[in-house]
Write a structure and sequence with these properties.
There is one protein chain. This protein has 309 residues and is of the alpha/beta class. The chain has a single domain, classed as Rossmann fold (3-Layer(aba) Sandwich), CATH 3.40.50.1820. Helix 11 links the parallel strand 7 and strand 8. The chain starts with a helix and ends with a helix.
Length: 309
Amino acid sequence: MKSSAFSAIFLGAALLAASSDALAQDFVFPASFGTREIATNGTTLHVRIGGKGPAVLLLHGYGETGDMWAPLARDLMRDHTVIVPDLRGMGLSARPASGYDKKTQGGDMAGMLDALKVGKVDLVTHDIGNMVGYAFAAQNRDRIGRFVLMDAPLPGIGPWEEILKNPLLWHFRFGGPDMERLVAGRERIYLDRFWNEFSATPARFSEASRQHYASLYAAPGAMHAGFAQFAAFDQDAIDDKAFLAQGKLTMPILAIGGEKSFGSTMAAVMRFAATDVSESVVPDAGHWLMEEQPEATVKLVRNFLDAGR
């Protein structure tokens, strides 16, 4: 075999290794970020903080933790103070016995920001983070500058009852001790169902990320707390209707959907809840926007937040 062939094989192996390393770093924040454990509202939240400038709060959803926001945090930290908690019961945050309704978790966010001495924030959310973010915004309307929501509905708002009929969303009603026993030791199998079925291209949700999140959800009490997020949806719907009765949100909102997931429905939902809604649909993406199309998603968020400066 000629030396050029050896070189080609070596180069290919090096590129593959570099690609694997890059995938493995998808959920790693810059070294300049610090972490704090912040006691608030009857629980303790694990919070990542970095950057300088106006504050932006990033809220994750189910199947992930605040780690999902690493690519966006790397961009925003140039001119923002970026605050990234793990939600109550998820990731490295504490797992209290109760408080998984989103109104209570909105209070978690307010208390956390008070502890950090942060007043007004921009808000970027995904999945269950949308629901927590809406509850937080509805209870703290003068505290939110701009609000980005990504690819998930709001309980009790707009076409909620129709959305519940979608058979792909059977997990909304999946929970309880028997279901916890079924998934115990099989957390990766359960989570793969989300990562695969809700992706336009499942391979874009990297194996490194799957291993990372599966290990966190396999921790004692983690699946129980995750199921509790869904079990609270009926109460969330009651609370959200009460928030809406107080008036629609008036801050500028960007509703982003994945083309192969919620698409324009994300904006349709938010128009029931807010008066100033812009719409974006990310092509060739399912639900996992930060994994499937990170560059396009970061650009949308960046441009929207910059428009308010």
